[in-house]
């Protein structure tokens, strides 16, 4: 699977990614993003509650994606194989994994809203992952 980042990727989109990686907590609060986990598909969504109709998922790598409108505005993040892959590769998130597994067992529905205290841990890790992705794929060393 190829990423959406290339030499032809717009400067505006790259700037949005850099801004998101540097200010994920602020951007998410400003846009009222919430974190929900789909128990059935093992996917995590960190976005506005209602995405615009023209929003599509665009992958940055094999598990991390952004919700992107037709005007190339980032409206959130999407992580596929969240507990089976993403959490297992991020040791700093053991506490989140334990909390999510508890919530999964007691959930009456497939979609779980992640608690705010647990979400803080995740936001920090997502910001670090975005930063690492940009350094690796865009050769950005400063932001």
Describe the structure.
By secondary structure, the chain is α+β, with helices and mostly antiparallel strands. The chain has one domain (11-134). 43% of the residues lie in helices and 20% in strands. The protein is built from four helices and six strands; from the N terminus they run αβββββααβα. The protein has a six-stranded antiparallel beta sheet with strand order 3-4-5-2-1-6. A hairpin with a 5-residue loop joins strand 4 (64-68) and strand 5 (74-79). Helix 1 (11-30) runs antiparallel to helix 4 (116-138). It is globular. 22% of the residues are buried. The mean pLDDT is 79.
Short description:
This protein has helices spanning 11-30, 82-86, 94-106, 116-138; strands spanning 34-38, 43-47, 56-59, 64-68, 74-79, 111-113.
For the structure shown, list the relevant keywords.
6 strands, 143 residues, 4 helices, six-stranded antiparallel beta sheet, alpha+beta
